[in-house]
Amino acid sequence: MVNEVEDYIYELEKLIALADQKKDKYLFIDPAYEIIDEIEELGNVFDFVEPIFLLVERSPDIDFGGPGPLGSFLEKFYHNGYEDILVKSLQRKPKEYTIYLLERLCNDENNPKRKEYCTLLDSLK
Length: 125
What we know:
The protein is mostly helical and 125 residues long. The chain has one domain (2-124). It contains seven helices and no strands. Helix 1 runs antiparallel to helix 2 and helix 2 (26-40) packs parallel to helix 4. It is globular, with a radius of gyration of 14 Å. The termini are far apart. The relative contact order is 0.12.
């Protein structure tokens, strides 16, 4: 599975570089949906959550979509470990996109950690 994770992350990384170079977010977004569809057919897809955050951390601040293919995939793990990995990513290297994902957590009035997430968001602005 590790090789699969690395291979898929590498493919996403190439798309990010192309979208950044050509200044066209759809060169990432459209094919990334197809890659995410492939990932979702694999065994333990949660293994991709942290590598995707690491990918975003080392990527240029492109428009990944709102939430786009990555966010749509990651948010499937909401209430199942996604939030903790997002917070760790923000502590390591906050990016526009991960801050946006945190804002989405703050919008959930039923989340018991909402105040904690909003405090973190305020500290990043």
